[in-house]
């Protein structure tokens, strides 16, 4: 059995599911991770966040979690388990960055860099104008947009403020502090 790996997970929703509000859906999704063999070690507060990109739909509820994935080194299978939880809560992948009943993103797994440093750097440095129309064809870790998004970093700072990005050398707290104050202030605890 390998060393236990802690993964960082982001949750978001802006549509109700079966009569539940997005906030209720996020709480239920956090509990549902256990059904997929993923032990939640810490779950952030819930936050109201402006829809991204602006005007794409109702505002979101976001959260983050630290999850023990055991000695699992097949991170694609971890991602598949997260997608299985999304599907249980009505997630349909019809449009990139579209409205959704549930979105669960694998942000990072320990200090893993996938598929390699060069590819992670290229996706992380992709121009904002190119991000909406371009999606990777494989798992990129850490998540290439993690350092740019207050709606990810504010909840993540609740549960993993000292995690350090293996390519940037910055902690969650440092990445969050580097964002414009207006971005940070737009993410409000529920």
Description of the molecule:
This protein is of the alpha+beta class and 190 residues long. It has a single domain, classed as 7,8-Dihydro-6-hydroxymethylpterin-pyrophosphokinase HPPK (Alpha-Beta Plaits), CATH 3.30.70.560. 31% of the residues lie in helices and 18% in strands. The protein contains seven helices and six strands, in the order βαβββαβαααααβ. The protein has helices at residues 22-32, 75-88, 117-124, 128-131, 150-159, 172-178, 181-185; strands at 6-13, 39-43, 47-49, 60-68, 103-109, 188-189. Strands 1, 2, 3, 4, 5 and 6 form a six-stranded antiparallel beta sheet that branches. α5 (150-159) packs antiparallel against α6.
Short account of what is shown:
The protein is an alpha+beta fold and 190 residues long. It contains 7 helices and 6 strands, in the order βαβββαβαααααβ. Strands 1, 2, 3, 4, 5 and 6 form a 6-stranded antiparallel beta sheet that branches.
Which properties best describe this structure?
Alpha-Beta Plaits, 6-stranded antiparallel β-sheet, 6 strands
Counting structural domains, the number is: 1
Task: Give me the Rg, rounded.
Answer: 15 Å
Instruction: Determine the structural class based on helices, strands and strand pairing.
Output: alpha+beta
Number of DSSP helical runs: 7
Largest β-sheet summary? 6 strands, antiparallel
Low-confidence stretches: none
Q: CATH class, anyone?
A: Alpha Beta
Shape: globular
Report the CATH topology name.
Alpha-Beta Plaits
Rounded average pLDDT: 89
Please indicate the percent range of residues in DSSP E strands (runs of 2 or more). 15-25%
The CATH homologous superfamily is termed 7,8-Dihydro-6-hydroxymethylpterin-pyrophosphokinase HPPK
CATH architecture: 2-Layer Sandwich
Percentage of residues in helical conformation = 25-40%
- Say how many strands there are: 6
**H/E element sequence:** EHEEEHEHHHHHE
Gap from first CA to last CA: 40 Å
């Amino acid at each position: 059995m390998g060393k236990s790996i802690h993964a960082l997970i982001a949750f978001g929703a802006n549509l109700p599911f079966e009569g539940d509000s997005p906030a209720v859906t996020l709480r239920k999704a956090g509990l549902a991770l256990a059904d997929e063999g993923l032990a939640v070690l810490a779950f952030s507060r819930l936050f109201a966040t402006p829809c991204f990109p602006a005007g794409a739909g109702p505002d979101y509820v976001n959260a983050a979690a630290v999850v023990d994935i055991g000695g699992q080194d097949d991170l694609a299978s971890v991602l598949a388990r997260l997608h299985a939880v999304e599907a249980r809560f009505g997630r349909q992948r019809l449009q990139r960055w579209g409205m959704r009943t549930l979105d669960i993103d694998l942000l990072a797994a320990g200090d893993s860099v996938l598929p390699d440093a060069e590819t992670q750097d290229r996706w992380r440095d992709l121009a904002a104008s190119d991000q909406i129309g371009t999606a990777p064809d494989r798992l990129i870790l850490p998540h290439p947009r993690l350092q740019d998004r207050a709606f990810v970093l504010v909840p993540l700072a609740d549960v993993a403020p000292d995690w350090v990005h293996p390519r940037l050398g910055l902690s969650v707290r440092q990445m969050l502090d580097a964002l414009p104050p207006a971005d940070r202030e737009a993410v409000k605890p529920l």
